[in-house]
User: Fold 1,4-alpha-glucan branching enzyme from Pedobacter paludis.
Amino acid sequence: MSSSKQTHDHATIQAWAEKHGGVPAIVEDTKDSKGGGILRIHFPKHSESKSDLKETDWDTFFETFDKHKLDFLYQDKKSDGAESTFHKFIERE
Assistant:
């Protein structure tokens, strides 16, 4: 059985992403002049070279994350016990 966790703690999010080979990114077409846009955790080793994601730094990423009052929903393990990279950003309650 897999279970999801939810947080808005920056250190937890960054540690989870780095553990799974992820980097902070913004969807290129949604980027504004201040660096904000739709957030993603990008896994370069698991994606095509042609991506609409633009890597960014953690400070810019978390500035946008906090501005939009988001939470990070994520999973450590799949139901079969394998590591999971499932995650999504949701509105903070």
Q: What stands out?
A: The CA atoms of residues 50 and 81 lie 31 Å apart. The two ends are 25 Å apart (CA to CA).
